[in-house]
Structures are given as C-alpha cells and as structure tokens.
C-alpha cells in the first residue's frame, strides 16, 4: 500500500468539471464509470455565502486508489466553484514515516495548511499531543444531529478529555483475505475468522510452488501492513506496546516473546518455506497488493484497497476472494476488528478555519463522499450511521457492505485475557514507535538470528526512548 512520498500540489480555482465517477470496468482496464453528479447542499451554500472569495490549504492522506484521489479532487473542485472559494489540496503518503514531523515543522513555522484528513488511529493522537489541533466539537455535534453517530472507534481516537479534535470522514475497515477456491480444493472451511495458527497451517496446506501458489502473503519488512500484522499477533497473544493509559511501556512480556517467536518461526523454519512467495522479505506496502492481484497468494492482510482494485479492474481474483475479520490468539477469542477512520483536523493557526470546517462538513456525506466511495469500493465507506442509508450503493453495492457497516458499530473496548482493552487510549508514544518501524526492525533481527527474547528486550528499550521523547517518563 505504499505510495510516492512527494507532496503533489493541486490547486482548485473553481473551474467546472464534475467528471465521471463510479466503478465499472472491463478486462482491458476500467471502462467509463457512471457519473455521480456532485452537488453542494443548499444549507452549506448559505453558510459559505459570507466566506466567498476565501481560500484554504488542505492535506489529503493519499488513498490507495488513483481514481478515488481524482474523485476527491473533483468533489473539492465542485465545492470551490459553487462557493466562489479556492481550495489547494496536497497529497501526502501516510506510510513515509515522516508525515507528523513535516506537519509539526510547518505549524511551528506558520506555513501549515488549514486542514487535513488522515488516519485517526495512526496520527491524530500525535498531533494533539503536540498541541497543533483545534477543538472541533461544535462541528461533530452539528453533524451528529444530521447523520447519527460516527464509527465507534472514533470516540477513542478523536476525543481527548471529552472534546473532539478530529471530524470522522470515511471509515476504513480491518480485513484479511484468502483464496476461497484454494481452500475449497483442500476441504478447508471458510469462516468469519481463524486463529493465527490455523492460518499458518492452512497456508502451508494450500501452497504449491510448482503452480505458483504461495499460501502466506504477509511480510515483516518495513511497511504499514507489516506493522499491523506484527502488532495484531502480539495483541492477540496478550502483549501490548503500552498499558491501557497509553503512557507506560509494557512491551517486554512473556506474551510478546511468544508472539514474536511464532512470527519468526514462519520466516526461518524450513517447514514453511514452500508457502513463502519469492522476495517476501523485501516487500513494501504495495507488494502484497500486486502479488494478490497476480493470483499467486492464498492469504494477505490489507485494507480494502486490494479488494477495490480487483473489483473495479475485473480481476478474476475478486470472485475467488473470501474477506474475513481477522485472527485470534491465545489471549483473545475474537478478532481485533474495529477499523479506523480517515478524519479531518483543523490546525491551530489556520488562516481560514471557518471555511476549513465547511469543507469537512461537505466531504463527509452526500454526493461528495459517494463519488469517492464508488471509485474505491469497500475501501472508502461512510463513517456516519445515517450516511450508510443515504444511497442504495451503500446498502447493495457489494456483498461485503453489510459486514463493513457492522464493523463501524463494533462494541469496544475488546478485552484480552491479560487485561488489555483495545482500542487503548490514543498513545502518541505508541503511534511514534510504530511509525518508526521498531516492530519490523525487531522481526528482521529475529530472522537474522537474534533470540526472540533478546529482540523483544532490545525493542522495549527503543520504545522507552520514543515514549520519553514524547514526554512520558518511564
């Protein structure tokens, strides 16, 4: 899922271009999509009347669908034209590892944009801890009156001391995928979730290198997907980076060592070599997408970007995909599947905060969101309950939608046998440690021969340093 790290500038001056949005496709590539006529609601036009002639700068966390990025641009352009305003939108990769550092530097220099949207789980806590975000509780309460409640995860990642500092935009589900045709051939069951041990053993059973079938499509190389995989195994085994307050490092535990031993065995035990695709040790975030779409993997973990690609491009793997909620471990009998939202934040020092809030209100629902959602089916989903009922597309556009909507309503927290409750309180230290790829570095050291217990202890020490840099004395 990695994207280019450069920040590409797109400036909208109100030029008319609605564009064709949707998800039709054909064997030779995507066909022209059915149009979504993006409209600005009259209520927002009335609110924007006093802001005519104004401008905002915006950062967008790059979506893993170029068509969806273009659809988002078109929605912004329609808003700019209708309201007589200017919106400058820059794309930024969430997987580059330096996104928060760049935003921090810009705010301190007074050169920051007015607003941005980004993963609430990964970034909002860090920016709030730096003191860079504006209270947007008024906007969230206004939207709650219109759209009902946002995804349950947002109450954890966007709220600090009872106040909202981010506005849920669109929901991104947690998911894993397996080849249901390969499983069926081997008589293996298709279930809503599995244990990690089941997935490992099934991956070996369906593998056949001579037929270019590799059952295991999860890397531990530096990437966002690898971070998610490693953390999930550790959590389901009963370990965690921090305690439930998000302030105390608790990484070095027997449960974490057991999880790291399990993962390391997959990549070092000759028994499992037949299920590992060539080059998996050097994969980036885009590699599992590419290999899944090439039809050579039996299992992968990904946002619904790979699912969206297979559907919109008429890839035959789509019909053979079994999406499921994830895996369990010794400390948890249900998957940690509550997703995240890309959420809008308004930076302190914004030159036009009122217009920034209005842009956020426009983008979260109606035709503005529908156009983006249709270009990234099941990847871009409503965060707000009543938006799910706003168009037949969300209720009948894909068989996966019902399960996705239920994930937005997941009761949280989910508690492990070891006393951790997920999602935990947003932890700037944990977010920074994850962004620094300490988990993937740890697994690389295990693969190179370091004992799991020693690798965990060394990583614990590195995580402590990160927490203390964030102001949390250990």
Automatic annotation (TrEMBL):
InterPro entries: Bact_solute-bd_prot1, SBP, TAT_signal. This is ABC transporter substrate-binding protein. It holds the Pfam family SBP_bac_1. It comes from the Bacteria. PROSITE patterns: PROKAR_LIPOPROTEIN (PS51257), TAT (PS51318).
């Amino acid at each position: 899922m990695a994207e280019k790290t450069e920040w590409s500038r797109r400036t909208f001056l109100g030029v008319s271009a609605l564009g064709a949005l949707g998800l039709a496709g054909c064997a030779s590539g995507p066909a022209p999509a059915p149009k979504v006529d993006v409209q600005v609601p009259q209520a927002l036009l009335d609110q924007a009347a006093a802001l005519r002639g104004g401008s905002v700068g915006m950062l967008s966390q790059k979506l893993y669908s170029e068509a969806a990025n273009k659809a988002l641009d078109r929605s912004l352009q329609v808003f700019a034209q209708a309201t007589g305003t200017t919106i400058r939108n820059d794309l930024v990769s969430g997987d580059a590892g330096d996104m928060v550092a760049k935003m921090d530097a810009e705010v301190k220099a007074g050169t920051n944009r007015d607003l941005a949207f980004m993963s609430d789980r990964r970034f909002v806590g860090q920016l709030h801890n730096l003191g860079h975000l504006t209270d947007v509780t008024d906007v969230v309460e206004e939207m709650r009156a219109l759209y009902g409640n946002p995804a349950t995860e947002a109450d954890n990642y966007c709220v600090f001391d009872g106040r909202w500092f981010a506005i849920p935009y669109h929901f991104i589900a947690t998911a894993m995928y397996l080849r249901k045709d390969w499983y069926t051939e081997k008589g293996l069951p298709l279930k809503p979730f599995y244990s990690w041990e089941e997935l490992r053993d099934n991956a070996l059973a369906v593998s056949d290198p001579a037929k270019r079938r590799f059952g295991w499509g999860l890397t531990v190389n530096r990437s966002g997907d690898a971070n998610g995989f490693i953390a999930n195994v550790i959590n389901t085994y009963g370990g965690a980076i921090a305690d439930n307050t998000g302030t105390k490092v608790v990484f070095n535990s027997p449960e974490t060592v057991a999880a790291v031993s399990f993962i390391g065995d997959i990549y070092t035990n000759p028994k499992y070599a037949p299920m590992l695709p060539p080059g998996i040790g050097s994969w980036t975030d885009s590699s599992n997408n590419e290999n899944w779409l090439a039809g050579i993997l039996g299992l992968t973990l990904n946002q619904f970007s790979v699912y969206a690609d297979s559907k919109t491009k008429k890839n035959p793997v789509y019909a053979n995909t079994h999406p499921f909620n994830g895996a369990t471990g010794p400390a948890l009998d249900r998957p940690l599947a509550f997703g995240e939202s890309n959420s809008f934040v308004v930076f302190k020092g914004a030159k036009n905060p009122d217009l920034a809030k209005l842009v956020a209100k426009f983008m979260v629902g109606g035709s503005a969101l529908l156009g983006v959602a249709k270009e990234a089916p099941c990847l871009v989903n409503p965060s707000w309950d009543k938006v799910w009922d706003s168009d037949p597309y969300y209720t009948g556009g894909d068989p996966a939608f019902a399960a996705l909507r239920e994930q937005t309503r997941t009761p949280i927290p989910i508690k492990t046998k070891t006393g951790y409750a997920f999602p935990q309180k947003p932890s700037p230290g944990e977010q920074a440690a994850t962004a620094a790829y300490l988990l993937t570095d740890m697994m690389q050291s295990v693969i190179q021969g370091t004992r799991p217990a020693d690798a965990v202890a060394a990583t614990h020490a590195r995580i402590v340093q990160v927490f203390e840099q964030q102001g949390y004395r250990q």
